[in-house]
Amino acid sequence: MHAPVITEQITTDAESAQALLASAYAEGRVRFETSEDFRFGQRRQDLGELRIDDMHYSFYTEYQMSPLGYALIVRVLDGELGFEDAHRDRRLFRAGDVFMCAQPDEPYRAVTRTRRAQAISLDLSLVDEVSEEPAADVVRRFTREALRPEQAGHWRRTVDYLTQTLAANDTAASSPLVLGAAGRLLAAATVTAFTPGALPRPSEHRSGIATVRRAVAFMEANPDLDLSVTDIAAAAHVSVRALQIAFRRHLDATPMGYLRRVRLDRVRADLHAADPTRGVTVTDIAARWGFADLSRFSAHYRRMFGELPRDTLRG
């Protein structure tokens, strides 16, 4: 994951629009039904393993596309989309629907009468970070139907939260910790939303106290790294589920919640050591330790230390 690279493209030329689509997605055949008001626009936020495209059309389009190699989640904002995947199943999606267009290793055909849509490209490496199974196996179980309204709503709010947070805070948008957490958050939300009847996997019960000690030692030694719960579980030599059970049983916390406490301690130390007269800000220090949302960060900080971070900096 890297800081968002934002590009905006608008064209009234069909060949240019075809080239834009080919560069953004896999190669394939694209046919436009042009008219005098032909117009295509795309705004892309590229974060490396995650890309967010906002597109608007003024035309009818047919696609015959090669396999993408990643999960492409589409959110229809206006109009409708017809999809046919490698199984020859035809599906029709309308405004408000959220769906995955095809499996990463399968070609697909699409017919669009869409005015506006949002497309989220999610590399399988991000799915690997939030799952104990190979990403291809996890994605293979994704539903090919539109998400139910409650699932779609949660997924949309996650996307909106990430884009708004990164757009509002340049320091956070360049922090590897913030970006890594953002990618995993969306990957986890996608896995949860698209896996029918998703249930926690059963796992072995090992010595809970020993597990917690290994995990805590690893987090306290590496709070500056972009750690996922999978990384912590691997360091503790247990499954993710076993790690979560051990932390809940012995610390009444989650592993990531404990990591947040460790990072808050580092923030407090940096605030005490900082000189506010030299332009050091709470925002800079918070982002350094992976906190993008300042209001939530301040609430966590005050709950833990009994004062606001700005008071610590001034003191």
Task: Explain what the structure shows.
- The protein is α+β, with helices and mostly antiparallel strands.
- It is built from 13 helices and nine strands.
- Strands 1, 2, 3, 4, 5, 6, 7, 8 and 9 form a nine-stranded antiparallel β-sheet that branches.
- The radius of gyration is 22 Å and the shape is globular.
- It starts with a strand and ends with a helix.
- The relative contact order is 0.10.
- About 3% of the residues have low confidence.
Layout: helices, strands, pairs:
Elements: E1 5-11, H1 14-24, E2 28-33, E3 40-46, E4 50-57, E5 60-65, E6 71-84, E7 90-94, E8 98-100, E9 108-122, H2 124-129, H3 135-140, H4 149-168, H5 170-173, H6 176-194, H7 208-221, H8 229-236, H9 240-251, H10 255-273, H11 282-288, H12 294-305, H13 309-314
Give the end-to-end Cα distance, rounded to a whole number of Å. 36 Å
Strand content: 15-25%
Mean pLDDT, as a whole number?
86
Number of helical stretches of at least 4 residues: 13
Radius of gyration: 22 Å
Low-confidence stretches: 199-206
Number of separate strands: 9
Task: Note the run of SSEs as H and E.
Answer: EHEEEEEEEEHHHHHHHHHHHH
- Main pleated-sheet profile: 9 strands, antiparallel
In short:
This protein is an alpha+beta fold and 315 residues long. Helices cover 46% and strands 23% of the residues.
Could you name the key traits of this structure?
315 residues, 46% helix, single chain, nine-stranded antiparallel β-sheet
